Amino acid sequence: MKNILLKGRVALFLFLFVIGAFISSCSSKPDLLQIQGRTMGTYYSVKYINDFPSVSKEVLQEEIERELKNLNLQMSTYMKDSEISLFNLVDKDKDFPISEDFAKTLKLSLEFAEKTQGRFDPTVYPLVNLWGFGPKKGRKLPSKDEIAEKLKLVGYKRIKLKQKDGKWFVSKSIQGTKIDLSASAKGYAVDKVSQILRSHQFNNHLVDIGGELIASGKKYDEKWTVAIEVPEPDKQAIQQVLALENRAIATSGSYRNFFSENGIRYNHTIDPKTGKSYRSDLVSVSVITDQCLKSDVIATALMAMGFEKAKAFALENKLEVYLIRFDEKMNKFNSFDTLLNYKK
């Protein structure tokens, strides 16, 4: 009889333990996992809620890195055997076959070149390289004759993109015209990584490639928190904190990538119309849209306009932006934004 009672108590204890463990597992939050690495000359970071563990973290990272490698093979001007590098070497009036990702990125870039009347131009590569901000090393102030020579090769209307029998082709009308998609490739890569995560039901995630981000879903019960930094080269301080859900943000700035000569700072944003490095009061542009590719292209386009024109363009097109200008007279930063719904 004692053994029967003892067994009953043990069984009851085990039953209660299982029920308790089940309730505990149901109430506990799924893990927040992170994947990190290097791509496109910068870092990448993926944070995701492991609420539907369909694949392991290791398998997911392998898939992500395969995709990033594939995009580099299409659009990196730093790889001699990439599609974009091979196209840059082909003769004029020759249809060159390109991959779908390359075509999608170039298509949007050409559309915004038209919308901004050439302020944003994916054919600015010869000038970028001349100034030393591309694969060709040695940053220097080029001569007027050198700039004039390279300007002959620049102009987005000289690039023709077409689709035939489901395949994409690109051609140039001027010998020596070259494409540079560094202002859009990272944004497109962010979107592609986000697609991979969603394909595995990881709908709540934050993807960041070199500061270009997409925030999908939520971080548990809250929106994802991101920050726009103070545009000073020697500082890493926060200018504005934002809360995002199902939105993408990209930032373009003149305060990191530059060189100085004779006391004058020359940044990596080159005016495709004059061939000169932009000298503007606008030092940082952040843009929020539904796609990181779109945010990336628009941010670069606005950066090329200067503060007043960028502000007018943003208001006219109802864009979600955060613009930072430097007031030399007051020696301080001023900002303009349309991000009231995102501020924390």
Corresponding CATH superfamily of the largest domain: ApbE-like domains
Instruction: Write down the overall geometry.
Output: globular
Percentage of helical residues?
A: 25-40%
Low-pLDDT stretches are 1-26
From the 3D structure, determine the CATH topology of the largest domain.
T-fold
The appropriate CATH architecture of the largest domain is: Roll
SSE pattern, N- to C-terminal: HEEHHEHHHEEHEEEEEEEEHHEE
Number of domains: 2
Write down the overall mean pLDDT: 87
Number of strands: 15
Structural summary, described in words:
The chain has nine helices and 15 strands. With 344 residues, the chain is α+β, with helices and mostly antiparallel strands. The chain has two domains: 32-74 and 188-337, ApbE-like domains (T-fold, Roll), CATH 3.10.520; 80-172, ApbE-like superfamily (T-fold). A hairpin with an 8-residue loop joins strand 8 and strand 9 (238-244). The protein is globular, with a radius of gyration of 25 Å.
In summary, what is this structure?
35% of the residues lie in helices and 26% in strands.
Topology:
Layout: H1 2-27, E1 32-39, E2 42-49, H2 57-75, H3 83-89, E3 96-98, H4 100-115, H5 125-130, H6 144-151, E4 159-164, E5 167-172, H7 185-199, E6 205-209, E7 212-216, E8 224-229, E9 238-244, E10 247-253, E11 258-261, E12 264-267, E13 282-289, H8 292-303, H9 307-316, E14 320-327, E15 332-337
Antiparallel strand pairs: 1-2, 2-6, 3-5, 4-5, 6-7, 7-10, 8-9, 10-13, 11-12, 13-14, 14-15
Helix pairs in contact: 2-7, 4-8, 7-8
